């Protein structure tokens, strides 16, 4: 390994340091599974119908709303809000969250059924 074994081992990892990272591509949506669901916005008292094929941020914007957001990639957390009820799915990992009260990022989450948000 030579004089500096740590440098030799770490060199391949260090080669990528400082480069911008691109988040993984969103999960593909099975068109047969896309349907309309109800999104209840608890704080504003509104109920909307949105498609399960869109991120919650895109769906809310399509309804004329302007929720806080930033990067649209799930990195900055500007769009984070509380999910009070329902099932959401992370568009990057595919993980579903049915916990009754949890945080979600609107830009990288979609509703899997009727859902209530603290907006």
UniProtKB/TrEMBL annotation:
Coiled-coil region: none
Listed Low complexity bias regions: 7-29
InterPro entries: 2Fe-2S_ferredoxin-like_sf, 2Fe-2S_ferredoxin-type, Beta-grasp_dom_sf
Signal peptide: none
Domain 2Fe-2S ferredoxin-type: 35-119
Pfam family, one: Fer2
The organism's place on the tree of life at top rank: Bacteria
Region named Disordered: 1-29
Recorded GO MF terms: iron-sulfur cluster binding
Protein name: 2Fe-2S ferredoxin-type domain-containing protein
């Amino acid at each position: 390994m030579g004089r500096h074994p740590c440098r030799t081992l770490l060199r391949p990892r260090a080669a990528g340091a400082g480069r911008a990272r691109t988040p993984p591509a969103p999960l593909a949506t099975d068109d047969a599974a896309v349907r309309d669901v109800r999104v209840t916005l608890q704080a504003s008292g509104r109920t909307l119908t949105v498609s399960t094929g869109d991120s919650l941020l895109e769906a809310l914007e399509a309804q004329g709303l302007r929720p806080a957001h930033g990067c649209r990639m799930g990195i900055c957390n500007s769009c984070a809000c509380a999910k009070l009820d329902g099932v959401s799915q992370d568009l990057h990992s595919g993980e579903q969250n049915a916990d009754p009260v949890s945080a979600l990022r609107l830009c990288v989450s979609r509703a899997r059924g009727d859902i209530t948000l603290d907006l």
